[in-house]
Each structure stands twice: as structure tokens, then as C-alpha cells.
Amino acid sequence: MTATADEAELVTDFEAILGRRDRIEPRDWMPERYRRTLVRQIAQHAHSEIIGMQPEGAWITRAPSLRRKAILLAKVQDEAGHGLYLYSACETLGVSRQELTELLLSGRQKYSSIFNYPTLSYADVGTIGWLVDGAAICNQVPLCRTSYGPYGRAMIRICKEESFHQRQGYELLMTMQRGTDEQRAMVQESVDRFWWPSLMMFGPPDSQSPNTAQSMAWGIKRDTNDELRQKFVDMTVPQAEALGVTLPDPELAWNAERGHYDFGEPDWDELTAVISGDGPCNAERMAHRRRAHEDGAWVREAATAFAARTSEDGR
Amino acid sequence: MTATADEAELVTDFEAILGRRDRIEPRDWMPERYRRTLVRQIAQHAHSEIIGMQPEGAWITRAPSLRRKAILLAKVQDEAGHGLYLYSACETLGVSRQELTELLLSGRQKYSSIFNYPTLSYADVGTIGWLVDGAAICNQVPLCRTSYGPYGRAMIRICKEESFHQRQGYELLMTMQRGTDEQRAMVQESVDRFWWPSLMMFGPPDSQSPNTAQSMAWGIKRDTNDELRQKFVDMTVPQAEALGVTLPDPELAWNAERGHYDFGEPDWDELTAVISGDGPCNAERMAHRRRAHEDGAWVREAATAFAARTSEDGR
Amino acid sequence: ARDLATYAVMLADDALVMSQRIAEWCSNAPDLEEDVALSNVALDLLGQARLLYTRAAAVDPDGVPPLPEGSPAPPEDAFAFFRDAAGFRNVHLTEVENGDFADAVVRILVFATWRLALTERLSESTDPILAAVAAKAVKELTYHRDYAGRWVVTLAGGTEESRRRVLAAWDRVWPLRPELGATHPVEERLARAGAGVDPADVDASVDDVLRQVWDAAGMEEQGHRPATGPQGRDGRHTDALVPLLADMQSVARAHPSGRW
Amino acid sequence: ARDLATYAVMLADDALVMSQRIAEWCSNAPDLEEDVALSNVALDLLGQARLLYTRAAAVDPDGVPPLPEGSPAPPEDAFAFFRDAAGFRNVHLTEVENGDFADAVVRILVFATWRLALTERLSESTDPILAAVAAKAVKELTYHRDYAGRWVVTLAGGTEESRRRVLAAWDRVWPLRPELGATHPVEERLARAGAGVDPADVDASVDDVLRQVWDAAGMEEQGHRPATGPQGRDGRHTDALVPLLADMQSVARAHPSGRW
């Protein structure tokens, strides 16, 4: 990349890299729309990790065994860690964490709609691990091969941890299924609440997802929403059977012809409502995040002032 | 009372009223030291009602039956009401509630040391009713005949409600004693914690209570600390037996000669420590009160501003 | 009978959970008078809840949640202490966290206005007990509504800060308003039978009362109001109910066969 | 054996209750890095608690709190979830409410400095398991102490507000310091037997470390320190422990024979 190289040449190089499925790195030239799309996607992912700490984090203090408490605490800690990797990946695209935080807090950038649903029992900790992390993994595994280097590398690390979380969630549900009748009822009730929202995590149907084609061309998306959703359903139905829970969809059935499970249509109006701010917990999640951020302002200011002073002192 | 009447005459009149056990009223002349002693005593009593809402109030949300929740909520509400009467009585002596609140919050006026002990189980709600309200009643019944009219009348109303609370507390303990072994253990553990602090509610021994003589002469105290303490012990021991709990004092024994129960010496150093701020919950109680007061400042300001505006508007 | 009992439990749960939230104000109010008044509101609602649970248990004894073995607790306590969040039927407005004093009065105003509209009609229920409970509640709720309404007007016309706060409280409370007008199938069936009230039938009159308060307070009418179906009435709650119940039920559950 | 088990429970309760308080910071810290670091501290302490409860149960199986009938919970959970406040042996420093971030770091600094001094000696305990648990804890607590110490110095030398807040936090935490030096009879007997540590023996070295932090932070030495005997070690607690336990134990107790 030199100052004299003209735009067309840069685009050709860029597309050549994509063509051979190689990675774009921070110092490579990239089209502004590619950069902006990536920033939005990575930031939304990072924000989801941070907001996602809340629904599960609320159960750390109430975990019903010390072993489960340790597992959950470590998991939520991992989510904070994922947020850190992803904000770093985003910073390589020239946006600071502070800017991204402002975009989250002002509502101009989104986070995954799934975290606007409440967690009402300890079974939800298991269900989130199984279904929500499961759906996240379906979404994310292809992103390990995404065209932007820092993002792909962050995803590799994240996916490894997520699949660990998924197994732990499933194991919790399995254990509860071997417990009392009340516990089994808790598990079923939790799965009933999370099934449809999990399907919506893959976004609107392809017919209503206009940006998919461009993202796939850029190699920052590898499969369409509907493909991923189908993959998730196919993966999950046998797990539900092994677990002994019923997925709340009467249309769910094996289709031998397609070699896939058929399933019902999610309530897309609900998804629209949740994305536009009218989900059950949108206000609560944002208020929590804003409060934590505001409460911590004096600490961040103190750290900055202290760093400035000690570097002045030449210490 | 005229402008020409000289001091000596006023004092004579004042003492005549005391002499015939009649009441001093707000518009009567009174010696400045009498007024100041009364303000201190009534304010301390009012503050005790307000601070006393905390240790019991913390259990309202956790009351183990709806009936007990209603009883406890009504009781703590009564305490707020007692605070109101007593601050009003104090205001007739020319000190505003706001001034008194400042004196409490700055630590210049005290409240009863008993509220610096924690409440650790629901049995404490019963024990506070039985022992703490019981001790308060011993202290307060004589004050119904106190020389200052508004104070005496407030005490009549308060004592009536307090003895109702005491019966409810005792009844809770009785009920728990008919419950499980664990509940009986809770009751005993609670009585063990509250017995000595209850005895200390009567203040230091007479030998170390220099102001008692003057207060008795003024008719704002009717019995000495030790007399009241003895009365309380004599009243309480048979109740403890009926309840089936052991009072934690090996020296406790009937003295046929005196016609009273003998009992051990409370740990006066502990009382000194608690009064001087080193009790188990002093910091917590004051911090709670200050926070509630500060959190409510904007509401009080709004009410004042609104009242000023509407009276201006002639509405 | 099952419907009637469920309906009584819905109304009882609203009252109990709201009472629990208001009771959290105890010793935290801006002034002693407000401590007394808020305790009063909490006590009234607690009393309504107890009568309604008792009615539910009388109508449908099989619907009372099972107690731990050896527990001597009365039915009202079985409802209060031995159900999990998913078993509660209260609306979200009653369960969300407290916020500041402006939230408290806005929330009480909306809740009491709505519940008053329901209970006024319910006092003519074909179920004589529900009718009697409702008739008693009408007086209480009128006081709650007027108390909260006065404070809303005071805060709106007080200082800049109090106005800002009361408007912010409206913004937080208002999204919870639509659920109050959503009809649950049980409510619909009972309304048809003359034993209950369909909340949709009082929705407009609730708005009328609230509009009067807005006018008196010089506030704009609240806008955006997304449609919603029953939420809490179907056992779907916010996160906030879980810690509320954990706290409320902790002693009762620690001593499952305790006697209080 | 009874003494050894009691001693292990004292140390375990300190770690569990402190861990529980620190875990409340989760998703509330001033920055992501602090969220990660505080979770780490909480996790380390939780791990210490689990090992110590398990040791206590092995040494004195009769001392394990009784579980509800049919509960498959391991001993560590019997200790954590099926004791009431009066059964807990932790010091008050671990149980009081959280306050702000300055409280958090001051409290962790004091706690970790004290516990590090204890565990350094305890790693030479005649009980080989306690010694091993302590040796592992030494590394963890060193990190906790250094982390908190760095923040105390940073806050003291940051802005006016941060300095004011860290000084206020010291004022709140300091009254809880004397209890850390008070010797419980169990500790005394075990120290004499070489299995435990008498906290009085490390009291001066704790002060030395804290003094270094004060110096680095340019703060005055803390004054007034009323003498005290054991409090929490004897089951005498502040009000703050009760809601902490109500929350922590709520799910386990709601499902007394649950399997997790």
C-alpha cells in the first residue's frame, strides 16, 4: 500500500485476499463500508457479551451449590473476557472502547435481543448455556474463518470457551432432570421460555435480511440466517430428546425428504419489538449498564489522573 | 405571667405546680435548664423511635407469615407515629423537628443504645417486643405522670401502643416455642443476646447517674435507674419461666428477704462503648438514617417550593 | 370454581407484591409522615391480599399450593411462601424495583387508579365475598390514589429537580401500563359470568383519571404505548420478582415446618 | 478433631462470605478489567472455602450440619446452605455491605493482608491438608493484596474525589480491623498444637504491611482502634449477614432435596 496506488488497485488487492480466503489485517487497506460493517458487527458482539453478563450474573449469589457457583462465576468472568477481546479487535479498526461504550449506552449500537429476556429460575442458567450459547456457537464457528484477522482469531478463542459453557449448561440440565419433579418442571418451564427467543438469535428470515449478500461477499458472514437456524434446530432436537424435555413447537418434525427438521415460524413481530426496545428487559439491562458505567466514572478518572501524574513525575 | 413578674416569683409558681403534681404547659414559664433537660430527654426518646424502626423494619420483607408481616408492619409504623408525637412535644419547647434531626444526624443527640445491637433472626422481633418494649414500658409508664404536659400526654398514648407491641412480641415467642426444636433454639439464642442489653436500657447504675436527683425533683423522672431495672427483672423472670427460656445470668435468683430477684452486674464497659459509638451497629444505624435523610432532601425541598408557590398564587 | 380461585389469586398477588415493594420504603421515606403513609398503603394491600387468598382457598381447596410436610401454615401462607416466581400471577408494575420517591408515587398512582376502577366494579360481583372484599378495598384505594396523585402534582410543581425526577419516573413506569389493560382468558370468562371484571372495560376510565392528574401537574400526555398481552397473569415475570421472593420467602422456607 | 474442623470452618466461612460480597460486583465494576479481576478474587476465595469445608467434614463428620431428608448435597453445601447466621464463624469484615469501589479495594487489601499473614504460617501446619490448602492460597492472596494495594494507592493519588472516597472507605473499614486480631479459644488451642495460627501473632505484621500502603498512598496512619474480643468467630454477627444468607441460600432451600 503506497500513497500513489490508486483506489482501483487497492480494491483489486483487497478482493484478491478475500478470493484466496486469506485474512485482512489491520494495516491492510480496506473499503470504508467493509470497515464500518465490521465495526458494527464486532461491537454488537462485544456489547452482547457485556450485557449478557447480567441475566446470568444475577444468579451467582444464589447458585444452589458451591460447585455451580464456581462454574457460573467463571463463566460470567469469561464473558467479560470475551468483551475485552472483541473491543480490542474493534480498536484495531480505529474505534476506541470508550466510543463503543458510548454507542452502546446511547442505544445507537445494539446487543443480542436474547438478553432482553428475564432469567427466572436456576434452570435458566442451564438453558442459556445449552440453547443460547449453542445458538451463539452456530453463529460463531463460521466466523473463526472470517476475513478480518483480529476478529477471526478472537472468535477461535471465544468459540472454544463457549462450547465449554454449552456443555456445562447441558450438564446442569441433565443433573436437574435426575432430581425432583419440581426440578424437572423448572427445566421444562425454562426451555419453554427460551426456545423461540433462541431461534430468533439468528436474526430475521433471509427474505428480510438485505445485508446478508454483501456480508457474505466480504467474508464476514459465511452462512445465511436461515441456514444457521436450520443447523441449530437439527443439532438441538436430538439433544432435547436425550435430555427428556419437549421443545414448545407442535410443528417440529423430522423431514426425511429434506434431511432436516421442519419447524414452526417464530413470532417475528416479537423480535421486532424486542430489537426496537420493547422487550421484557430492555430498559432494565440498559439502566443497569448505565448505572454501573456512571458509578465507575470517578474510578476511571482517578486512574487516568494517577497515570498522568506518575508519568509526569518520571516515576 | 407578666413582663413585670420577677424571676423569683416565676420560680415559686413553677415549683408550686410541681409541688401539687400538676402539669407545666408550653405557655407556662419554666427554668431554662428544665427546658433544656426536657428537650434532650424527649428528643432522645423520639430519635430512639426513629432509629428503632431499622432493626425490626429489616424483617418486614422477610416475615414468615402474612399475619406476622401485618403485625410487624403496623408496629414499625407505630414507631414512626411515636416519633411524630414526640417531635411535636419537643416543638412545644421551641425546637423545630429539623433542628432535632440535625442534632441526631450529627451525633450531638443520642438514641437508646439498644438499637445498636443487630437483629439476626425472626425470633429477635419477638424478643424486642418482649424485652425491649418491656423495658421501655417500665421506663415510660412513670413518665405518663411527668411534669411537662405535652410529654406526659404523648407518653400515655405511646405506652398504650407499646404494651400492645409487648404482648404481640411475647405471643410470637410463645408460638415459636410450640414449634420446632430449631425454632426453640432460635428463641433461646435471641434471648441470650438481648437480655443484658435490655438491662442496660435503664442507664448506668444510680451511683454513676448524677442527673437523676435534679430530674426527679423536676418531676421529669419518677424512679431511679436501679429501681426501674429491678422492677423490670422482677416482672420479666416469671414471664421467662412461663415461656420456657433461660435468662443468661447465673446469679439470677429470688431473694425472699428483699422480696426481689437478685441479678448479676451488666457489663458497664460495654454500655460505655456502645454509647460512645463503638457498638456493633452504631455506624450502620447512623449511615442508614443519614442516607434516607439525604435521599429525601429533594422531596422535602419540592414540597416546600410547591407550598410557597401555591400560597403565592392565592390558590 | 377453579377460575374464580385463580382470579382471586391474581388480585391477591398484585396486592401482595405491591405491598412488599412499598414496605421496602419503611424507614427510608423522605419524611416521617411519608413513612407512616407508605406503611399504611402497604398494610391495606397486604390486608386485601390475605382476604383474597383465603377466598381462593375456600373456593378451590385443591388449588392451594402444597405445603412442606408437617407445616401448620394457613392457605394464605401457602400462596405467599411456597410458590416460585412462575406460579405468581401479578402484573409487572407491582414487581419492578423501587427507584426513587417519584417512582413510588407514580407507581402507586397508576396502580391504585387501575385497581380502584376494577374494585369499584367488582363490588357488584356475583360472588358475595369478592364483592365484600372489593367494597372495603374501594375506600382504601381511593386514599392511595389521592395520596399519590397529590404528590405527583407537588413534585411536578415543586423544584426543577423534582419535576425532572417525576417525568423520568413516568418514563420508567409508563411501559408497564399496557399490561394493566390486557385481558387474561380467566378474567374474560369471569367477567362474562358476572363474577369478575375485564380490565379492558376499565382501561379508558383509568386513562381519564390519569389525564386529570397530568393536567393538574401541567404534564404532557404520555405517548407510545405498545400493545401487549397478559404477562405476569400468565406467570411470565421480569427478573425483579426473583430476588423479591427469595427475600420474602427466606425465613418461611428455612423453617418449612415452623410455627409462627 | 472437633477443634480442627471448627478452625477450618472459620477460615472457610471468611472466604465464602467475602467471596459472596465480591461476587456482587459482577457486572457492576468500574471497567471490564476490574470485573475480571474482582471475579478472580471471588473465585479464588470460593475455591479456598470449598477445600476447607471438605477438610472440616473429613476431620469431623459429625460436625457437618444436617441436610434436609433426601438431599444429595455434599458436605461443602451443607455448610454453605444449611446453617443460619448464628452458625457462621466469619469475621464482620467479610459480611458488611459492599459500598463503593473504594470500600471494595480497601476491604480486600485489609482482608488479603491479614489472611496472607495467617496462611503463610498455616502452610507449616501439622495438619498436612491445611498446610497444602494454605500453600496454594498464599499465591492467590498475594495477588489479591497487590491488586487492592495498587488501587488504594491509585485512588489516593488520583483525583480529589477519589482521595476523599478512599479515605472515607478507610474510616468505614477500620472499625472492623480489631476483630481480625482477636483470638478465639479454638485458635489459641490449635496454635498451641501447631495446627493453626493465633491471629494475635500476626497482628503486628499485618499493620506493617498496611503501613507501607499508607506511606505509598501518602495517607496518615489510622488512629482509634477499640479493643474487641471475637465476634463473628462466636457466631455474633452484624445485621448484614442475614440478607446475604437469605439470598445465597434461597434456591438451595427452596429445593431441599434438589440435585444440582
Would you give an account of this structure?
The complex is a heterotetramer, with 2 copies of chain A (315 residues) and 2 copies of chain C (260 residues). Chain A has 315 residues and is mainly alpha-helical. In chain A, 66% of the residues lie in helices and 2% in strands. Chain A has one domain: Ferritin, CATH 1.20.1260. Chain A contains 12 helices and 2 strands, in the order H-H-H-H-H-H-H-H-H-E-E-H-H-H. In chain A, a hairpin with a 4-residue loop joins strand 1 (253-255) and strand 2 (260-262). In chain A, helix 5 (123-140) runs antiparallel to helix 6 (149-177). The radius of gyration of chain A is 21 Å and the shape is globular. Chain C contains 11 helices and no strands. At the A-D interface, helix 2, helix 3, helix 6, helix 11 and helix 12 of A face helix 1, helix 2, helix 3, helix 6 and helix 7 of D. Chains A, B: Its EC number is 1.14.13.149. Chains A, B: Keywords: Oxidoreductase. Chains A, B: One of its GO terms (biological process) is phenylacetate catabolic process. Chains A, B: InterPro entries: Aromatic_CoA_ox/epox (IPR052703), Ferritin-like (IPR012347), Ferritin-like_SF (IPR009078), PaaA (IPR011881), PaaA_PaaC (IPR007814).
